[in-house]
Amino acid sequence: MNDLIYFILVIGALLVVASVLQPLAERLRLPHSVLLAAVGVAIAVGSVTLLQTKEPRMISEAAAAIADMSFSSSTYILVFLPALLFQAALTIDVRRMMEDAAPILLLAVVAVFVATGVIGLAIWPLTGVPLVVCLLLGSIVATTDPAAVIAIFRDIGAPARLVRLVEGESLLNDAAAIAIFYVLLEMIVSGDDPDLLKGAWDLAVDLGGGTILGIVAARLAVSVIPLLRGSRTAEVTLTLALPYLIFVSGDHFLGVSGVVAVAVAGLVFGAGSRSRLSPSGWAYLDAVWEQVAFLAGSLVFILASLMVPKLLVNVSLHDGFLLLVLIAAALVARALVLFLLLPPLTLLKLSAKISNSYKLVLTWGGLRGAVTLALALSVTEARGIDGEEQRLVTVLATGFVLFTLFVNGTTLRLVIKLLGLNRLSPLNQALRSQVLALSLADVRDSIQQTAVEYEFPPTVSRAIQKPYEARIAEVTSAGSLEERISDRDRITLGLISLANRERQLVLEHHGLQTVPGDIIEALLRNAGEIYDGARTGGRIGYNRAARKILRLPRAFRFAYSLHRWTGVETPLARQVSKRFDKFLVRRLVLDELIRFNSRSLKPLLGERVSLLLGEVLSGRMEASSKALDALELQYPDYAEALSQRFLRKFALRQEMLRYESLFDDGLIGQELFEDLRRGVESRRRLADRRPKLDLKLDKVALIAQVPLFNGLEQKDMARLARILRSRLALPDQTFIRTGDRGNAMYFISSGAVEVVLQDRRIRLGRGDFFGEMALLDGGPRRADVVALTYCTLLELRSGDFKKFLKANPHISELIDQVAKQRSVKLVA
Question: Where do the Cyclic nucleotide-binding domain residues begin and end (predicted)?
Fold first, then answer.
């Protein structure tokens, strides 16, 4: 057989091994990567042993294929690293990660510099090699492999924050360490004296340029998604190409860090694409990338482990001593960052406090893996590095990887348990008891109903119910949730639950395809802001964030001003459409949240807390309805057109779901289904068109609506319209107060106002008028008038009106007759 055939057979066999090791690792309660490394080393050693035997021929040839298999370091980095980095970044919740941005950056960036320096300085006096080579070794072993640690954390139920810290650190850690590695390697290979300033500048260009490249490329990719028209295969193909295009462009053409660019691109794409992809499209994308990461991660670990025997050549006792020094220096460097540099961030309020237990786990959990081995391999390939220096770096780096995997990796679960981090907090313990009690009671009742439905004997149902009744008694013996947790904590817990549920409901509306992706993105951002407010400030923080998202954004204010001064309508139409869609969906979401509170949170948190949560939601509903009403009053025709568009898109989605159901049930064939689908897509494209916003008002038509001017001829109304003056009212501005002397009436050209009477409130919108009696008697105002939005008012002042009547005496008689009739009605 030729080499290619053996290569394919070996790769296939290794994939089989990786698949078998996954369930075995779960059964043995060991990290998957630890088993992969162990099997990889065992295969490598076994192949060398089998080479000594000539028979059977097939086995000796397979052993030779494995022993001779070699990949360059660039193959590991170029083929596997972009996919692994992108997938890790893609699945991270950026908003949650930003909660711990300061400690993550400290662990991921500052810690890499500290580890590089401490390890290099510790090894340097004992080796006799240049300091820059020792620093190079430090940068190599500063990279981390989070897969094993995160798997352990999730398996034993470690706190979510601990998982988030490791995920964020590992993603940015590799980027920073590899950037430092290449800067130091360039110094060594060039043969020039190390230049600290040049090295710092090169590193800054690498990191900064990579960040910019990642952001720009990811935003471009996100903007392309709508053009793919929901094709899941096209969306996945785009994301598969993206990390490799970015990596190669950055590293080989733009002179910036491709690793940093890919990591940043994954974060930006993951944050921006959720609102552009359908929920099913995102789930499909996530599943594909999870499989890609498993394949790449498994292969890179086994293939790198196959290289271990080749890297561990001519090992001496002195190498063993240096390895112990390296291990101690790495642990000291990590402890320095966690115990000395992290506390000041807490004092400066840049980070929530991280307990000493967390710090110990993070210190011990710094496992290394395939990236470290690949970088060590690249040292053996670099020209300009002395052979002994190459051997020293590769031996120590490889030994350190094996130590972290087989010592740290196998004992990390024990360390976490000894520190008690696998136990729930008192709040979660109480919540767990409440959830169990409610859920088990539901299961017990459903058992009874099912037994009756299927006519099972009562003895059968009682036998199955009895264990559930025992468990209910056990979990309720500790006391109710109300007894174990204060009202304040339960309210905060309820508000956080509402914020999380709000995010889910927004994504459900995204699945209905009733609003554009940018609206969903804004609503998700708002839900995140409300979550942050509840988490940090409880009820006050939740309400403050809810009020903040009601404010008019800068883009709306700019579009309004642009239209007012230039008459350009398109930006304002776009902003009105966005705001209308946001408030319409938000009102629907709040309505569902009110039901969710009554249905799910009331049994869980208690009636008193549920009532308080209901008040908060009612306040939000009232404020949102007020804002939506103001838009409908300000642009009534446009609001109606937008409502029709929303409902039309909802109907199209329901129509498509019906066709899909018929197709899944086999009632219609593929050809008919595709024809129906194309029809729906065609109508959806028409429905996506934004209706035209007509902001032009006929002043004469406005005047004709006022009863005071009934009987005036068209030419007289035209003369009256010419003396109207424009006036701008700002949102929440009270421009008429009860008791003030009336000296003008107003027509609403655009916007909406609220007339506040003693016994009621009246909302007026575009085309309405108020204050007409002030033109006649100049008496005191009978109500406050408050602007609900930006309002353009046409003002008719009393003095101007009197001059108009004096110049047109024939009109004065008509006005006097109407005024007397209006006065009689007011008195009555």
Answer: 708-805
Decide if 662 is inside a domain.
no
Confidence at residue 62, expressed as pLDDT on a 0 to 100 scale: 63
Q: How many helices (H) and strands (E) in the chain?
A: 37, 8
Report angle CA 276, 281, 282 to the nearest 5 degrees.
75
Report the residue count for the chain. 828
Number of domains into which the chain is organized: 5
- Decide: helix, strand or coil at residue 497: helix
Q: What's the rounded Cα separation, in Å, for the pair 732 and 785? A: 10
| Cα Rg of the chain, angstroms | 35
Alpha-carbon distances, residue 41 vs 307, 544, 662 (angstroms): 8, 58, 54
Per-residue pLDDT tens for 541-569? 899 999 888 887 888 888 877 876 776 77
Of 392, 418, 444, the position where a domain reaches its end is: 418
- Give the whole-angstrom CA distance, residue 24 versus residue 46: 21
Whether this model's pTM surpasses 0.85: no
Q: How far apart are CA 488 and CA 296, in angstroms?
A: 47
Residues 475 and 495 in one domain: no
Q: Which residues of 515-526 are buried (b: 16+ CB within 10 A; e: fewer)?
A: bbbebbbbbbeb
3-state secondary structure of 462: helix
User: What pLDDT band is residue 613 in, cutting at 50, 70 and 90?
Assistant: very high
Range of the domain at 750: 699-827
Contact 756, 785 (CB under 8 A): yes
Judgement on whether residues 42 and 85 belong to the same structural domain of the protein: no
Which SS3 state, helix, strand or coil, does residue 730 take? Answer: coil
